[in-house]
Structure formats: structure tokens, C-alpha cells
Amino acid sequence: VPIQELKSSLLPIQGQKALQLPDVEGQVSVEGQKISPVPVQHKRKMTPNCVVQVDNVCKPPRKKKNVCLSPKKGESTDVLMKQMEYSPPTSHAEKDTYVFCKKLGIELEVTEDTIEIPKLDKALLTNGVVLEIHRFARQTDLPLKYAVFNILEYNFDLGLESEAQRIRFSGDVFCLVQRMITKKRKLTASKRGDFCKQIFPLPFTRKPRVKKSELVLVTESTSKCETEKVADWHEFEALKADVETKTEVIKKLREKCDALKDQKAQLIEQRTERGKKCHEVKAELKHMTEKYDKAKVKLTRLCVRNINKRMRRRDNKIKELENKVSELTQEKNNIAAQYEQEKNAKRNLELRNIILEQDVKKIKYEKKKEHMRMNYHKKRKEETKVKYSDPAFSMRLKRLNEEIYFWQGRYTEIKDEMDILVQRKLPTYENAKYNDKIREVYMDLMANMGVSSNKVSDVVRLVLVKLAGMKVDRLPRETSSRSFYVEARQVALQQVKETLSTETNLTLCTDGTTKFGHKYGTAGVFLKDGTRLHIGLREQSSGSASSILQTVQEMVQDIVRSPGTAEENVVRQQNEVFAKITNLFGDRASTEKKFNSMLSDYRSEVLPEIVGGYDNYSESEKAKLSLVNELFCGLHLIDGLAHQANATLSVWEKLIFGNDQVGSQCLPNATKETSESGTIRLIRTVCKAVHDKGCVEQGKPVQFKCFWASKNKSDPVPLSPFRGHRINIIFHNAAGVYFLYTELVEFTAKFQHDKPLFAEVNADLNVQQFVAGCRALGLVSKFITEPLWRVLSLKEHVLEMNDRYQTLVAKLKELQKDGMKLVRGEMNLFDDVEMNGGPVFDNLIASVNPEFDELTVQIVELILASFLKVCCRMLADHLEHGRYDEVTEDVAERMQSVPKTNVSCERDFGVFDQLLRVKTNATGIALEGMVMFKENRTWEWLSTLDSKKKEEVLAIARRSVREQKAIFCERIKKINEERLKINDKRPCKLPQCEDSEITIKQKLTVDLNNYGGLWDTEGQVDEQIEHLDEETASVAVNSQLKFRRFVLGMKNEQGIFNTSKKGRNLNLQDLVINLKLAIKKQEESTPQIDPTIRCRGLNTPRKVKGTPAKKGKSTPQKGRSPAVKAGVEVTPVKASNIPRVQFSPDMDSSPASSWDVIKQKQRFLQEAFNLQVKVRDSGRKKMGLDELKLPKVTHPDQLLGKRVKHGIEENEKKNWYKGTVIAMREEGRGQTFKLKYDECQMTWWFDLWKDFQQDNVKLLPLTAHNLLGKKVEHMFVSSEDGAETWWPGRVLRCTDDRNSFVIEYEDEEVDSEGTKLFEYPLLDDYINNELRILS
Known about the structure:
Structural class: alpha+beta
Number of strands: 23
Shape: elongated
Mean pLDDT: 78
């Protein structure tokens, strides 16, 4: 109240100017109480026209927290007033804490009596000085903003000229100080020292703008200064008198305040005893409030500034203090609870300590006892040294000493365990980072075990508290935990880098897939010991070969790159890794083949930089170094057989039914799958209907299991889900469908009217040809694919599969002629692989009836013939005369790391697919880190490192997080740009108009009519070409090919309709060959449709010759089971030799035409041969081998002197032996040949021509090694009479071109140079049957 009255007394009356008191120097005294204005003006002169802002001069002091607002008992009001006086801290201990201020000599205790000192430069004001000034100002009673400003203005030259600048400057400085304090709190301890040394940025001060009216006022004042001095003095005297009057008013109001305080004190003392007086106090308080309101209204009229802001600040401060009190109370409760927990833990430790001490005492006692026993034995030994010289005593003593050492070690372990238990606290955060143990645990839990980042800390804390009873200081939060994925990826990369640095002859395996529209690629490296290192799985812009190569290069760059490595060293190390890759392994898709070619070219380019003295190598040695072996996954062979089986079944079904709709295709709402055969459709729909992971909406797996159990079947249902089983699923489920045939017919008949899916299954089950197809595929599964899969799972060299593959092809060639052996189960694919029997196997080989067995044999032979096509295309490199059939030891050593299957890449995508579905918000780099850490078993590699090496690895991983994230973001940006470029390059194809297609067809028809119409036969082709010149004939043949392709719609298989090759037009001869192939293909594919056959539905059997077809619909008899209605006779199985599947005699079991099947088999065999030759020659060319050329043998005499392979039956197995036919003799009507085997020097005579006709003798290609040093006969033709003469000689050496040989003839005369040596291309002569090998 006195301060407010003083302010009101100092304000000017309305209409008068405010003048500054000339005698008052920075303070106002009211009844002995000194009130310092803010800011304090030190020795500053006042101009007459300067207006004093009372709100800034007469600031009320802030109350201390420890000030009691009411006097205690026995204390007067004077004591309370003394407590309110300002007393700044002056203790010596507090002054010593202000290091920066003390160093610069800054005065912190600024009062009205402080002597003026020289001002310091603003450049010396640092963040540390400001922080110390702020800390000191918080201890004063003045407002914090003004206390800081007073100290700064007193010690530093701030350059402030007006009161407005001071007010604005104090507010800006306070805001800057608060920001600096907030920024400091976010810094780590290591960075706060440098932050305190930085210069504090002061706010910019501007000169005050002076209005024109003020300028005029100043000029007038200066001119009339002297005349107005007297008036000013009188005005000052009047103001002084007014001050005295107001002082009296203040005294009276102070007396009233004292009375109110006394009354309030009395009310506090009597509050517990006299509650009724509270109403009187309220009335009195209301009365005093009215007086205070009147005084406040009077003060508001004269006050310039609104004081409501201060009141709101006060209220806010009170609320903050109340909240702080509540927080402190809560913290106190928590500390109390924690104290109780610690107390209980301490009690438990004391109990455990007592137990351990007892154990230690017991151990000490036992130790003392053993020591006494040892002393006793020593004493006895000294006494009876001669008597007890037996070594048994020394052994006993040694054993006792070992026991002593054991108990001493046990004592040490228990003591260490006690020390750990006493601590009961695990440190995790050291040197402003989490320690390596925490990082290693988090990597293992998150990247290997799949714990999410928001749960891993809870898991760690729960395990430590519940199992170990230990507490941790601090654990990483969710944001920090996510960075461990990236660290785990870097640790896995370091593992791969360290492993590859010591390995050679690596095998690179790649694969790709599409997930939710994104293209992903994976790669792995196989080592010599068979282990695989996963090097990356990431997104790529497209599935092209160039994109795959770029992705692999980026993976290798990430492996060799480490923080701080120069880019030149990264490129060098990357090229070194690619130089170590000598084998490529994949599925041999078109993209894979192109990628292999691009990678081989890239490797050849970098070899001169990596291999020392590369230029000194010969061309053959350079080619050998540049050679990269390309091998094929064995499991993809089984997948290819499944696709081929589907296509073959479609052809077979078309031969039987033609274009008729059969089975479920006759239903009104059936799905029309043109690319799927009826047999495969039956297998797929059965799995959807009765398997657990089948169709959710229409499937009934639970009901079928109950039905299966009701038939006293304890075996599980022999079916597998299609999802997750890609390779052998068709063959495996076909055997299961055939095994469940009887139960499926009965079960589906119950639900065929409720569910469309069961109607389709029931309809297809009534087609006997589909059931025969299931049996054939089941037999293939048991005798072909499953043994092959088991052989691929064996750990052996990949080249050992050559014999397996050749055996497979030989068996297929044998069984496609006689499939009854397979149907009866009288064969075994591999002698060392046993067949897995069981009820399914027994059911497959059980004979149903002769007609059904004949149907099964037909489809089995056709399927196996088509399998030859797949095997010859995929396995040409491993078959006879392939590039990997006979390799050198060096090449075999380089292929030591090649696996048999590519299942590891498929496993990568399986793990990746699961992570995509579980961790939907994970980034690509985090997913790659999880897959690499898990697949490479990096946690095991970390456990094998010593402490120093592990610390170094984890430090590198921790420092590389930002760099890895930056590279990942840049890679994603680049992928998006490449996708945009691909989209821009893609042309916008508009739908072709039907009119344009009709115009093209009309034009082709007109061109065709110009050359005699469509040529239907090969003879017509030759006849038409004879009357045309070469150019016109080429145009005519082109028009014939285009008409057949674009008008008749024939498929361009094997490029028979292509008119150019590699950018060059085909000549007339090639075009004619293609046209004849097209005519032949059309003749073979044209079906002979029986006009009596109509659309075959569910209940319409096929009309067979000699069996009249039934007319009308068949009406089922009452009391018959659903299976009988479906045409199947259900009979219980009483013995294993009785088949479970039996058909109704009304069902159609007619096979395809034998002639059509033979034609299809011949086509498959011819395609297999052509594909094998094509792929084999291409592979040999890449390997650097000569093109395979074999002589044509059409007469027995041409077998003499040939390299052959002879097959001999031994122990019911055909073994092949290589040798040379060195002699021939006439015996009766035939010839007998003398054969010398390579393995031994003995010779035998055989009828090789007969064996050659029976495919027991095969010609071998001739190499230079087979000719050197051999005795030969060379044929020459006389130029006079054309007589053929065989000249004996011996091959001495080979020239550089590997075809010309130097030969010395025996009976040749010496030429002019005195030598009998001649040079001829003997390999070409051998192929032309003009050279014989006789030794």
C-alpha cells in the first residue's frame, strides 16, 4: 500500500507534464524503508523534459519464499518488516561459485550505494557469465528480468540512451537468457563447456525516434529555459508539499494495515477454538476490501500501466508452486516406496549373505580339515619314508592337492558371486552412450528373435528383475532401439567382409521377387565349406538384368565400405570381391542368363586391375581366369517338371475329349481356366475343399476330418497346402487325391448341392481320365521327384550330380517306351536311394482293372516323354558331352563352393515376407538388417570375438548409423527416379481398332491369293517355288508365314514364323524350312473329330465303339448311397493287395488314340534332342571348348578307329566304359571288333555293330589329347583313278590352332628337306571318317 500511494503521489496531475525529481538519485525513502527503482540509474543526468515512467521506477520488490506474512506469538510488526527487507547473498561459499564473473571482475551485488566502475566491452559477455548472472539474480528479491538488466548495465557498456530502450532491452535479454538455458539443457555434458565459452548475442539497440512535436518542444524549452526555471521550482515545491501530504496518508494507512495484521494473527490463534468469529473476520475483510477497492480506483485513475498483469503472474506463480509441491509430494512417496523396496532387498541380501558366510565357514572348515589331513600325511611320510615308498601314496597326495585347489577356486567363485549380489545394480549407460553389452543384447533380441522395438526394453527389465533380481540404471527408449536394426546390419556386413577376405572361388546366388508391387532382390555367397553368407535383400527399380547387377554392386559396396574409407579404396575392394566370384548359381530364367553374361563381362574388365601381371598371361590363361561357371538349381528342375506335366496333361485330355466340355466345365457357373488341365484342376479344388488352409468360405476341412475318422482311419489326410509348398506340391497332392478318391466321392456328394466348390470337385471325380492323371502324377512323385529331391539334399560335390542326371535321363528314355514298370512299381530311380512305402504308395501300384491300368500307362509314358524335353533343356550342361560332363581337377576345385539347390534364397524371401506382414512400418534398411543378422547367425560370430575386437566392431556399427541412413535415403530416391524414367520411356499403346486388324488380314489374304492361295502340303511348296525367282519366292513364302500366323492364329513356337534373325533377313532356304515345319505342325495338331461325339457332361459317358450310349438321364434307385449315385462302387479294403479305388462299369475309361500318343511322344523326343544340342553347344562355347562334332557311322567298317563308350550289364545295372576300336575281322556274315578300354591294357572282341544298333555303343568326341602319340591310319584319294588308300603313321604334336597336327608316315619317302613330317587337320578328317586310331 505505501508503494502504491507513493506511485500515485509521483504521477502528474491530468493536463500537466511529468517531471523527474532532481534531488532523488535512484532511490525513494518511505518511513526509513528504501525502495530501489528498476533499472537503477548510475550517475546519469536528467534532462528537464525527460518523462519518468513510474511503473519502471517504483517496482515493488518480490517476496522471499521464507517470509512469514503474519507475526508469530510474541513478535511485533517491526520484526515482520525487517524480514521483508532485501538482503542479497553475501556468503563467501556462494561467491566462489561464480567463476566466470570472478575472472572478469563483474560486480553482482548492485545497490544504490555501489560505486561506479569502468564499463566492460560487450564482446567479453559469454554464455557462462550470463548463466552466473541469472543464477545470482534468482536469489534476489527483485523481479528476475530487472535484476539481470541492472547487473548487465552496471558492468557493461550497453549503449542505451532512453528509458524506452531500457525497457525493451530488458525484455529481449530475458527472452534470450531463457532460450539459452533451454538449449543448454539439451546438450550433453561434454559439449556444455564449449557452449559456456561462446559469446552471448545481445539484442540490437536502435536509437529512439523523436517526433517533430518533441523537437519543437525541445527547441522552445532550450530557448525559454531561463524564464521557466522559476516556474519549475515553484511547481517542484508544490509537488514536494503534495508528497508530504501523501506521506501522512500513507502513515495512516500503514497503521490500519498493522491493526488488520494483529487482528488476523489473533484469528489464526483462535481458529481452532472459536470458529464463529470467522464470519466477523469476513465482514471486516469485506469492509477493508471496499476501502481497498476505493483506493485502487483512485490509483487506477492516476496510473499509466495496468497492474493486472502482475496479479496474473502472481496467481500463475502460486499455481506453479502448488503443482511443484504436489510433484514433490508424489516424488517423496515414490522415494519412500523405493526405500521400502531397497530395505527389503537389503534384508534379503543380508539373509543371503549369512547363508553364504555359513557356506564359506563350512568350506574353510573343510579346507582346514584337508590341510590338517595333508599335514598328517606329510608327517607320516617323513616318518615312514622308506616304508611307504609305494607310488599309490603319491597319487593320493596329488589327488588331495587337486581337491584343495578345487575348493580354493570354488571359494573364489562364491566370493565373486557375493560381490555381484551385494551390488544388485547393472550399469548400462556409460560415457554418454549405452555400453556394448546392452547393444549386443538388443541386437540379438530385435534382429534375431523378432522382439519389437517398443517392447524390448520391457522384456529386458522384466527378465533382470524377475529372474536375477537386479535393477538397471537406464534402458534405451523406442527411438533409440530402432537404430539397433541399422547397427545389426553393419555388424553383419563386417562379418561378411572379414569372411570374404580369406576366401576364394566364391559362388554368387541371386534371386528376385515382387511383394505388394515392389521389386526385391536378394543375393548370397557360398563358401567352400558349404556355408552361405547373405549379403543383402533390398528393393530395386525393376526386375531387369541391369537392375539386378546394380543391386549386387551396391551390396558389395556396402560390405567393403566402412566409416572413413576413401572412395578409391572402396572401388578397389569391390573389384577384388568380384574377382573372387568364379561361379554363378540361379534358376536360369531369361533375366538370370542376361545377368550372368553382364556380370562375366564386368568381371573380365576388372581382372587386369586385380590380378598382378595380367598382361603377361597368354590368351588361353586369360580366358581361364575370366571363366565363370553358370550352374542350375536342382529344385527348379522339379518345378519345371510340374509345369511340363500340366501342359502334357492338357494335350492328352485334348486328344481324348477334343474341344468338348468335361467334368466341372459343364456346370453353369464353373470357372474357365484355359491354362490348367482337368487333372490339375481336380487336385487344386480338392485341396481348397477339404484342407485346413483351403478355401475359407466354401471349404469344409473339419467335417472331412470327422468323416475320415469315422471310417476308422487313424492316418492323417495326405494333403499339403499350396501356399508355402511350391516345388513338389502337384505330384504329392495328386497321390493324396488318388488315395482319398473313394472317401472324396462320398463326401462331396453330400455337399454338392450346397456349395459350388463341392459340385465342381464331384463332377471332376466322375471323369476317370482325371483320376488316372492323378495316379500318374502320384507315381511320378514316388518314383521320380521324391528320390531326386532326397539326392539333392545330400552333401556332396555338385559334379557328382552328373551321373544322377544322366541316370535320370536314361530311366526316362527307358520308361517312356514301357510305362508298365512304373505303374507296377518294378523300378528304382537310384540304387542307393530306397523307396518310401506306406498306404499311399501301396494304393498307387495296386491294379484296379486292365482298362484303367492301360489308361494310366498311356499318360505315364506321355508325361515321361515330355520330361525328357525339360531335362535335356535344363540339364544339357551335365549330360553327356556337356561342358560340365568331364572337367579338369582345376575346374572341379573352383566349383567346390557350388550348392545343389537355391533353397537359401527362397528361405530369405520367406523370412522377408513374414517380416513385411508382422512389421508393417519397418523401413527397408531395418528389414535387411534383420534378415542378414538372422541368416548369417551374426550373434554367434560376435560371441567368438575377443573383447577388444568386439568393442571395435560395435563402435564402427554405432558410428555408421547416420551414414547408412543417408545412403539408404539416397538409394530410394534414385530408385524412384529410375522408375519415373522407365515409365516415361514406356510407349502409350492405344487399343487397336478392329477395322485396322480386318484391313491387315484382308491385305494378307490378297497377297496370299497372288501366289496361288494357301500352300497346304510340302509338295505344293516345292511346286510353287520352282516357277518363281529367288526374290519373288522369298516374298511368297513370307506371305504364307504371315497368313498362318496372323490370320490362322498359329503359335510362333521355336520361332518358325520369324523372318529375320539377329537383325538379318533369313534366306529363301531357311524360310522354306520354317514354312514346311509350320505345315507339319498344323497337320499334327489338327484333331480328327468324331461327329457322333457330343458335349460330355457329368452324367453323359463317352460313346465307345461296341458299347451303345445310354439315352436320357439316369434315375438313381432308392436306398443307394451317394457314392453309387456318382457312379462309384464303394467297397471296404480287406487286404493290402486289394485297391481302394474301384470304378463303376458305366464310367468311360477310353484312352487316347495310340497313333496320336506316339506322334506326341516323337515330337517330345525330337524337341528334347534339339534343345539338348542347342544348350550343350552354347555351354561348350562359353566354356572355351570346341564345338561338339561326331562322325556319322552308317556302315560297320566306319566303327574301326573310333572312340566309343561301351555299355555292359553288370548286376542288373548298366555300366559304361570308354575305349578305342583298334581292329576288325570278318566272321561269317558279320564283323567282330577289337576294343581296347582306357582303364586297362587288355583287349576284347565284341560284335560292336549290333551293340551300336541297340544303343549300347555310343561315339565319343575326339580331343587333341586322344591323338597325341597314337598310331593312326590316314586316308588319301588318288587323283588319277580315285582309289582310297590308308597310310599308317603316328601323330607327333599339335600346332597352336588346336586342329592341325604334325604326323609322320611310315612308308613315305624323304622329301627335299630330308623329313617325313606333314601337317594336316586331323580332327576334321576324323569327323569325315578319313582317320582311324589304331592304338
